[in-house]
Amino acid sequence: MTSIAEPVLDAPTLPDRSVVPAVWARYTDLVIDHGEGSWLVTTDGERYLDYTSGIGVTNTGHAHPRVAAAVAAQATRLLHGQQNIVYHEPGLRLHAELARRAPAADWGVFLGNSGAEAIEASVKLARVVTGRPVIVAFRGGFHGRTAQAMSLTSSRVTIRGDFEPLPGSVYHAPYPDTAPDVDPETARRAWEADMDALFAQLVDPRHVAAFLIEPVIGEGGYIVPPDWFLPRLRELADRHGALLIADEVQTGVGRTGRFWAVEHWDVVPDILVMAKGIASGLPLSGIMAPRELLARWAPGAHGGTYGGNVVACAAALATLRVVDEEGLVANAAERGTQLLDGLRAVAAGHRRVADVRGLGLMVALELVDPDAPGGPAPDPALAKRILAEALSRRLILLSAGSWGQVVRIIPPLVTTPEEVDRAVAIIGESLAAAGA
Ligand SMILES: Cc1ncc(COP(=O)(O)O)c(C=O)c1O
Questions:
Q1: 356, β-bridge pairs
Q2: Which position among 6, 202, 225, 359 has the lowest Cβ density within 10 Å, counted as fewest Cβ atoms?
């Protein structure tokens, strides 16, 4: 390991990887020189097909020339124009442009930096607007790693388990059972009964400020809800005078084949949370809500030094232009169907692949051990082997799911039909090589 006594800024050799703490659980050892479109290129010149998009961020591909040019141009003019002190042109344009893309008319935007920070903002706004304390989140959801966001998260115990006590007045409602072998009507009745029990035993619905939902569960395993679910949450929120918060941090900006995932179900939330794909890799997040709700925050009630950073806003404006002009939302829908069909074909006959599912370019394979004592059980070891086999064939994938039993595939929205075919072929080989 490089000693901290040695100067490293221009040293001929790179510091050892161990300078980065192990808390950054890591999928690969690759050291990247640059990225282009769907590809990452290592310092040794090896090319990898990146079907992680940096966890759903680089929707326009790596270093899209138009986004990179916008960042470079902005960086030479102004790097930081603090929101409490001045206005700047990219920020003004972005607020207006995002409001134009909101799920309904007369919405406004509050900009922050990370997804977790935007989740915190949504909870603060919901509590101010309703004067109520309780947030109901859903089992399997992931909302980030700050204290409030951890309290809302139940995708994996690793995220929160070591950090109790966490902020209270958060309850986790069940998510409908979407297993392929479960009758959908039975699952719906069971969910309704569980919600009745939640309200009878734990939460007085008159105290609920908001229901918080990922329209498609992300880290929890890429679970697409049944069609009744989001409209039913809208009804529940209305009935109890609570807000509905859609966490579109991962699903937003075209990822699912619609600009916002809630559009698949014609549901208008009260607050929409965004981050990741909005600025192609620069840290930017935000919440959108009706202007009358945002106005309930007194000046100074929320904020942050870097929120709505000028370079990130310039990147977001360029990102939105690229998404529109290159038809990336439609491409996500088309490539998503191609990917899902291709994966279903290569997974056929692999008895350890329990499910192939997805929406747009959020696609997953669920792995089980069918011979486990007591019946089929999640198989995270198999998921790991598949990731390793894919990596050895220069395709980068991620895992997901509460047990790590899901292989998730998150291509950039610019991915081509040829790249999808290549990924499907590699995943087919990897399933066989990993013993699926
Ligand atoms: C749905 C969802 N919400 C919130 C977050 C937290 O975002 P960040 O990591 O930017 O804090 C994530 C990150 O993966 C996410 O997928």
A1: 365
A2: 6
Residues 293 and 295: their CA atoms lie apart, in Å, by: 5
Ligand 1 atom nearest to 275, measured from its CA: 10
Terminal CA-to-CA distance of the chain, rounded, Å? 38
- DSSP-based helix, strand, coil % in the chain, nearest 5: 40, 20, 40
DSSP 8-state class, residue 221 = T
Q: What is the pLDDT of residues 321-364, one digit of tens each?
A: 999 999 999 999 999 999 999 999 999 999 999 999 999 999 99
Residue 398's domain comprises 17-60+327-434
Angle between helices 328-347 and 310-325 (to 10 degrees): 70
Q: How many domains does the chain have?
A: 2
Nearest to 135 by CA among 328, 280, 271, 281: 271
Q: What separation in angstroms does the CA of 198 have from each of 131, 190, 210, 385, 417?
A: 21, 12, 15, 39, 46
Q: Judge if pTM exceeds 0.85.
A: yes
Give the chain's count of helices (H) and strands (E): 13, 16
367 and 395 assigned to the same domain: yes
User: How many angstroms separate the CA atoms of 48 and 88, rounded?
Assistant: 38
d(CA 150, CA 160): 6
Paired with 138 in beta bridges are 173
A 10 A CB-CB count for 366 gives 25
Residue 323 tokens read as 């998404």
Shortest-distance atom of ligand 1 to CA 214? 1
**Which of 138, 276, 406, 410 has most ligand 1 atoms within 8 Å of its beta carbon, as the pocket-test mutant?**
276
